[in-house]
């Protein structure tokens, strides 16, 4: 199966495992995805699309998670697990020139509470496939017990508590925790040995 689309996947696990999604002003909730241009690898496309659609510049591909037949317009998607050391906010908007210029609203969604009702059917199927693939590869971390109205988050040099009341109850700053970073590094080392 040869991919013609690439989809960067960014995870955060504060608390539990969250995935980066965005709300398209017309087409609902989506993953970042784009066409693989002539001469590009899926990894290069994933990083380019991540920059163009979200504004995340400093990222790297950690793992090729394989391809998926979208059963939509002959699209074969290549999922690329990406990592960034940048502290990403709870939510942000980014104006893209793609698709005739739109402002996309980015947010973190917990993998155990994805907004399927707000997604186009192809993105629903993609998120179901991706969740299963992440679980099978050991990337999904169990949610940590938490008070849904109070979440620990990083606010400068020390940890502080703040009340949050958004739909997902996630923290204003998403930095990959050491357990997720360690898991990614272990997977890279194992892949290099094979």
Task: Please specify the SSE layout and strand pairing.
Blueprint: E1 5-12, E2 18-24, E3 28-30, E4 34-35, H1 42-54, E5 60-69, E6 76-83, E7 88-89, E8 91-96, E9 102-110, H2 121-136, E10 150-155, E11 158-163, E12 173-174, H3 178-193
Parallel strand pairs: 1-6
Antiparallel strand pairs: 1-2, 1-4, 2-3, 2-9, 5-6, 7-12, 8-9, 10-11
What do you see in this structure?
The protein is of the alpha+beta class and 194 residues long. It has one domain (5-193): Nucleoside Triphosphate Pyrophosphohydrolase, CATH 3.90.79. It contains three helices and twelve strands. It has helices at 42-54, 121-136, 178-193; strands spanning 5-12, 18-24, 28-30, 34-35, 60-69, 76-83, 88-89, 91-96, 102-110, 150-155, 158-163, 173-174. Strands 1, 2, 3, 4, 5, 6, 8 and 9 form an eight-stranded mixed sheet that branches. A two-stranded antiparallel ribbon has the order 7-12. The two termini are 23 Å apart.
């Amino acid at each position: 199966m040869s991919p013609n689309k690439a989809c960067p996947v960014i995870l955060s696990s504060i608390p539990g495992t969250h995935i980066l999604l965005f709300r398209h002003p017309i087409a609902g909730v989506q993953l970042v995805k784009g066409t693989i241009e002539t001469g590009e690898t899926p990894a290069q496309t994933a990083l380019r699309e991540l920059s163009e659609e979200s504004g995340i510049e400093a990222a790297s591909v950690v793992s090729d998670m394989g391809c998926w037949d979208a059963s939509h317009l002959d699209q074969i998607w290549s999922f690329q697990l990406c990592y960034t050391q940048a502290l990403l906010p709870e939510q942000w908007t980014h104006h893209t020139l793609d698709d005739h210029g739109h402002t996309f609203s980015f947010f973190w969604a917990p993998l155990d509470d994805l907004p399927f009702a707000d997604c186009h059917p192809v993105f629903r199927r993609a998120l179901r496939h991706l969740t299963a693939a992440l679980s099978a590869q050991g990337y999904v971390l169990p949610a940590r017990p938490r008070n849904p109205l109070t979440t620990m988050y990083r606010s400068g040099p020390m940890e502080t508590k703040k009340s949050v009341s958004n739909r997902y109850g996630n923290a204003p700053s998403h930095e990959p925790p050491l357990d997720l970073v360690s898991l990614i590094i272990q997977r890279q080392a194992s892949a290099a040995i094979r």
